[in-house]
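Page 37, continued from 36.
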């Protein structure tokens, strides 16, 4: 398969001194997507991710490696990057031929999508995990066992997966190359972390607001939905919780979260909602914990953003009308007093 070719820079740097272990778990992952429209048309896109930071990308229209970070070109000379691009271009044709041949033999219909994920994960205690997984049409297909050097079918009853497993396991040379590349992955991950230290340590503080959504129909006893919207934070890990009278609300059907979603400026956002019963008199607040806050947390009470109820609006309206009426009466009385004073008389 073509995916290991993107790891060749790791092999070139394998003999370099091992950098120190990062202070937190981090993953170096290579992702590729192949869309086979028919036997003569295919699109390919690939990217490299350090944690959640995109470092490199490629598409088959030009087969040029794009550097998504200013430090992403470090580690190889321009000539080595060009050699890598050329190697990928040459291997892509052979890869397409083998996939189409296998698809015809197994009776696979077009279009179909092949996805690959290859890389390693390093933990602060020095342990690591290496992986190489491939899927077809969004479902697990086969994976490579880095310890045994064997391909494994992820679906034991899938004839196509068993066929691909047996075909790949017959290529002993390719399996040895993949094992070597995965062994060197950890050292290259450490090197990438050093080069991209400033980008990885970037901190963006979250901005949070709390608001309430009324029931869908007025007068129904449906619960009120409190929403805590948190956005603009980086890095990705964050914790958002709801407090009821100062105590954290336990998980249940009344809690819901959008999950962490990306923003266009490479920060993240999240929405957490809490269902509150009609007439609930408890106090609620949204608490946000993030590394950019320096050990502190954001606490946003719902009371500060609670909508005015109908009774409060009516009361304020009546109060304003009353004050206005009193002001008009005083003004009119004062005006009549001035009008009743004759020439040469003093006002009472």
């Amino acid at each position: 398969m073509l995916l290991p070719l993107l790891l060749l820079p790791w092999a070139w740097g394998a003999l370099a001194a091992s950098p120190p272990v990062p202070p937190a778990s981090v993953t170096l992952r290579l992702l590729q997507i192949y869309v086979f429209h028919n036997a003569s048309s295919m699109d390919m896109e690939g990217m490299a991710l350090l944690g959640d930071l995109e470092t490199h990308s490629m598409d088959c229209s030009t087969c040029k490696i794009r550097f998504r970070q200013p430090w992403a070109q470090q580690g190889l000379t321009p000539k080595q990057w060009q050699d890598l691009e050329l190697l990928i271009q040459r291997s892509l044709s052979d890869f397409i031929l083998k996939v189409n041949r296998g698809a015809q033999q197994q009776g696979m219909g077009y279009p179909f999508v092949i996805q690959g994920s290859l890389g390693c994960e390093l933990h602060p205690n020095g342990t690591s995990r290496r992986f190489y997984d491939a899927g077809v049409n969004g479902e697990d297909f086969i994976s490579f066992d880095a310890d045994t050097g064997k391909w494994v079918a992820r679906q034991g009853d899938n004839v196509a997966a068993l066929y691909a497993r047996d075909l790949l396991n017959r290529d002993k040379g390719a399996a040895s190359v993949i094992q070597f590349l995965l062994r060197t992955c950890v050292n290259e991950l450490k090197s990438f972390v050093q080069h991209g230290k400033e980008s990885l340590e970037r901190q963006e503080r979250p901005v949070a607001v709390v608001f309430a959504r009324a029931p869908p129909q007025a007068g129904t006893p449906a619960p009120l939905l409190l929403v805590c919207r948190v956005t603009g934070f980086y890095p990705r890990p964050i914790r958002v919780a709801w407090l009821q009278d100062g105590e954290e609300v336990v998980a249940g059907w009344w809690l819901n979260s959008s999950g962490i979603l990306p923003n266009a400026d490479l920060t993240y956002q999240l929405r957490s909602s809490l269902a509150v019963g009609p007439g609930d008199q408890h106090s609620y607040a949204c608490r946000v914990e993030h590394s950019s806050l320096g050990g502190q947390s954001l606490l946003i009470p719902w009371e500060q953003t609670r909508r005015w109820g109908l009774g409060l609006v009516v009361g304020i309206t009546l109060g304003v009308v009353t004050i206005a009426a009193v002001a008009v009466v005083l003004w009119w009385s004062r005006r009549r007093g001035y009008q009743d004073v004759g020439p040469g008389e003093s006002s009472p």
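Confidence is low (pLDDT under 50) at residues 2-17, 304-323, 338-348. Flag for discussion at group meeting. The chain has two domains: 3-200, 207-305.
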